[in-house]
Design goal:
The protein has 68 residues and is an alpha+beta fold. It contains one helix and five strands, in the order E-E-E-E-E-H.
């Protein structure tokens, strides 16, 4: 999976989403990593809320989701 980065409006934190989500695919989540925290949001609602996860929990989730 390749990730495409997009800067959030005026923020130093960049949101990324999978390259499997094409330009015409509206249904995806985006993630942004900051020290110790990973935020997840709906790509259709960039101004909407995000959910924050401790970085360790996100790493564990990604390992499980990728079959590792």
């Amino acid at each position: 999976m390749k990730l495409n980065a997009s800067a959030e409006n005026g923020s130093a934190t960049g949101w990324i989403k999978s390259s499997h989500s094409g330009a015409n695919e509206p249904s995806c989540v985006e993630v942004a990593a900051t020290p110790g925290v990973v935020r997840v949001r709906d790509s259709k609602k960039e101004e909407g809320p995000s959910v924050a996860f401790p970085a360790g929990a996100w790493i564990s989730f990604m390992g499980f989701a990728s079959g590792g």
